[in-house]
């Protein structure tokens, strides 16, 4: 359950895919055959057919179909927590694009999932394997940028142990959460390899209240200041 932006709340009702991926293989090297005995061959031996075939395969087909990157992890309130972004290069089998109010399907050729765990339990698991996922177009869709949410296992993330997760703009290097007791929690932005999808995540202990959430660039210049999280 989560207290987040209206867009994320709408997308959270949509989807997700089972964890998994397809590995890829690099081209194998092969040594050229020597020329006749006692003579150097002036014509290079042709590359093995397998190597030629692999070189002809487009790069995007050799890339892994599912890429997962851990955004943050640790312990809070005696529980292990973790947040990861999971990018599916193509829409997973069994996943259906959500339907827009006008009856058309939402745009998207790929899927971006936000996997959040507290004490070994995935947040929003009640929504099925596609919860907390949103369709995106390729590896460089700007749609997720700017979203932020406070997530928990119950009561819509309003109390108990919670996780603050942000999908910041490109220039955000880290987030800094200030609690009302003066304690500050810093979280560094992490990007999914081969994409522009990024996030930072931090735990909020049970019973603690957020005074402010600030975001900074790599030169420590403040970019945003938000006091609407409690």
Can you count the helices?
Answer: 3
For the largest beta-sheet, the strand count, sense and barrel status come to: 5 strands, antiparallel
Radius of gyration: 23 Å
Biggest β-sheet: strands ordered side by side in the sheet: 1-7-8-12-11
Mean pLDDT reading: 80
Strand percentage: 35-45%
Overall shape: it is: globular
Produce a short descriptive summary.
The protein is mainly beta.
Verbal overview:
This protein is mostly beta strands. 8% of the residues lie in helices and 36% in strands. It contains 3 helices and 14 strands. The protein has helices spanning 6-12, 49-56, 59-62, and strands at 2-4, 66-76, 79-88, 110-118, 121-122, 133-136, 147-152, 162-167, 174-179, 184-188, 190-191, 198-204, 210-216, 222-226. The strands form 3 sheets. The protein has a 5-stranded antiparallel β-sheet, covered by helices on one side. Strands 2, 3, 4, 5 and 6 form a 5-stranded antiparallel β-sheet that branches. The longest helix is centred in the N-terminal third of the chain and has 8 residues, at 49-56. The model is unreliable at 5-54 (pLDDT under 50).
